[in-house]
Amino acid sequence: MSPPVLPTFLPVPAAPPVAPVYQPALLHPDYSRSRRHSFDAAYVAVQPVAAAVTPWPAVPAPYFTYSPGWTLNGGDLPRPQLHNLINGEIIASHLHINFAQADLVFKKRSGSLMHHTTTLSGYDLEQPATNPQLTRVRIVCDAIPQWPVDLQVIGTSLSPHRRHRAALPYLTLEDIVHAVHASLHRKISHEEWGRLSTSQETEVARSYTRRYKASGSEWAERQQRSEGVKRVDFLLKNTWFRGFTWLESESGVERLKLLTGSEP
């Protein structure tokens, strides 16, 4: 394994069942009706429901709801809906996550104060990331398109493997965000560093210095500094999670676009 990239050239400052159907009570009214999907391995079969479906769930669902008059037409299947905590297309209390931090802590904003946050429970983290549930997705980011993140659930096992994951047959909130964080904290190679221009090297090196100096303790700072430049440093100051949006599928695989921004 090659040594970490350390940009030291820069000065460092100190009912009766019916056929399986989608449950439209959890879908958005403005979905694209021109889009069609077939039932393939990317979807988990929806359980049969009673003929009389209440249009508005008794417990608020974490997905968009729809107009009660809307119905599916002739097998057209809408794009899966993202859980509100990771949906970048709505104004909501998204997860409060800074990907630059070495340890991933799942928090969400609560109340009217910007910095008032609460930690998500294990139950929250195991919620499906999408409705209907997906078992496969690719995540890309405009700032670092060279490093896509591919996730797939096979049976009840996640690939790539994540320790202590519950045996669930779908992609969860934690699966999606954890995979992005893990990918961003991979060290870059000397070859990847060599592709940068001089100005890009300077910006990324500054981002690296800023990140390790914000580690929180002297020991953590030494540890992060010794590991060298990571993918997350290529985001510069835009390391805060802003949600996901859908992209067009590619070769039958659904794709998500990661949105990031500066500190709120």
Radius of gyration: 21 Å
In one word, what is the shape? globular
Question: How many H/I helices?
Answer: 5
The neighbouring-strand order within the major sheet is 7-6-5-9-8
Low-confidence stretches: 9-60, 64-72
Please tell me the overall pLDDT.
80
Structural class: alpha+beta
For the record, the count of structural domains works out to: 1
Number of strands: 9
Features:
alpha+beta; five-stranded mixed β-sheet; two-stranded antiparallel sheet; 9 strands; 17% strand
Layout of secondary structure:
Blueprint: E1 81-82, E2 107-109, E3 117-119, H1 122-125, E4 130-131, E5 136-140, E6 149-154, E7 157-159, H2 173-184, H3 190-194, H4 198-213, H5 218-226, E8 240-250, E9 253-261
Folded structure, characterized:
The protein has 264 residues and is of the alpha+beta class. The protein has one domain (1-14, 85-264). Helix content is 17%, strand content 17%. The protein contains 5 helices and 9 strands, in the order βββαββββααααββ. The chain has helices spanning 122-125, 173-184, 190-194, 198-213, 218-226, and strands spanning 81-82, 107-109, 117-119, 130-131, 136-140, 149-154, 157-159, 240-250, 253-261. A 5-stranded mixed beta sheet has the order 7-6-5-9-8, covered by helices on one side. A hairpin with a 7-residue loop joins strand 2 (107-109) and strand 3. The longest helix is centred in the last third of the chain and has 16 residues, at 198-213. It is globular, with a radius of gyration of 21 Å. The model is unreliable at 9-60 and 64-72 (pLDDT under 50).
Offer a concise description of the structure.
The protein is α+β, with helices and mostly antiparallel strands.
